[in-house]
Amino acid sequence: MKELVSFECLKFKERDEMEDVVSSYHDAHSFDIEKARDTRLRALFKDRYDFRRNLTDWDYQFGGLKKNCPFINPRDYKDWRMTGLAFELRLASNSVPNRSMGSYVPG
DSSP letters along 18-87, please? Predict the structure, then answer.
């Protein structure tokens, strides 16, 4: 990686943060995808977290999705918003989380 990217302009703290991010992709570190998703949803919905099922229905009905994309099944849309799984594969078990989606940047 030294040939591709130069880290000389970064401060030591920033280098350590980059190292933490890259090393978090390794299987030796535990990664709880359910907890990471729940944390993201709580940050997104804030005090409305307990009403997220109603909010997904509101987004579908009045957010323009129903009018602009009538081919989207409302039940599939709500399931996707609640679980994060857009497509169910028949022979897949979804047992290995995608670690690249586990990062979070407050903004």
Answer: HHHHHHTTSTTS---HHHHHHHHHHHHHGGGGGGHHHHHHHHHHHSSHHHH-TTS-HHHHHHHHHH--S-
Chain segment 58-104, per-residue pLDDT in tens: 988 898 888 898 898 889 999 888 888 787 777 777 677 777 766 66
CA gap 33, 39 in Å, rounded: 10
Q: pTM higher than 0.85, yes or no?
A: no
Query: Rounded to an integer, what distance in angstroms lies between the CA atom of residue 75 and that of residue 18?
Result: 40
